[in-house]
Design brief:
45% helix, alpha+beta, 182 residues, four-stranded antiparallel β-sheet, two-stranded antiparallel ribbon
């Protein structure tokens, strides 16, 4: 009787492994494809915006549509840094004197400011006014992170009894703006 129970347990374990291992492998490959797609879309968005010198509503919506096609929800963070060189003056008895040196001032705009230009609360007469414009030499960075866990992470957590479902899908892209919008 005991031998029959061991055989039954072995058969059930083999059946679970025959199903679980290939499914886990398939889901992990799907995660790899999704990671590659999200990274490619982040690169495409950043490169297009850097080449145009602006972010348009159509460009941002295309990024959202392509990310939505993966079946997951994502947080998109955009950061634009512009730099200005400001001459340094000293105060003398006769007034201000130029020291001949400059300080760099950096202004960072986040996605809230960028989205308020792309999607203003009041009606804007022309689509050209909905462009978020940048200058050559500015920096633009895009970070995309998934909100939930992937199916592979859920399977891993279920079968391995782990508390973490693995890493989320994440991509970063950006660099220096090459052109200015006309």
């Amino acid at each position: 009787m005991e031998e029959a129970l061991w055989k039954l347990a072995g058969f059930l374990l083999a059946a679970v492994l025959v199903i679980a291992v290939p499914t886990m492998s398939l889901l992990e490959r799907q995660d790899d494809v999704t990671r590659a797609l999200v990274q490619a879309e982040a690169n495409r968005f950043a490169d297009t915006a850097r080449d145009m010198g602006a972010i348009s509503p159509a460009l941002y919506e295309r990024l959202q549509d392509r990310l939505r096609a993966t079946g997951m929800l994502y947080d998109i963070r955009i950061r634009h840094e512009s730099h200005a060189w400001i001459p340094v003056y000293t105060t003398t008895a006769t007034g201000l004197t130029d020291t001949g040196t400059f300080d760099m001032s950096a202004v960072t705009e986040g996605e809230t400011q960028i989205l308020s230009v792309l999607y203003p609360s009041e009606a804007v007469p022309s689509p050209a006014e909905r462009l978020y414009r940048m200058h050559a030499g500015d920096l633009l960075f895009v970070e995309i992170a998934s909100r939930g866990e992937t199916l592979a992470g859920a399977w891993r957590r279920m079968f391995l009894s782990g508390n973490g479902g693995g890493m989320a899908i994440m991509a970063r892209a950006g660099g220096m703006v090459r052109n200015e919008a006309d």
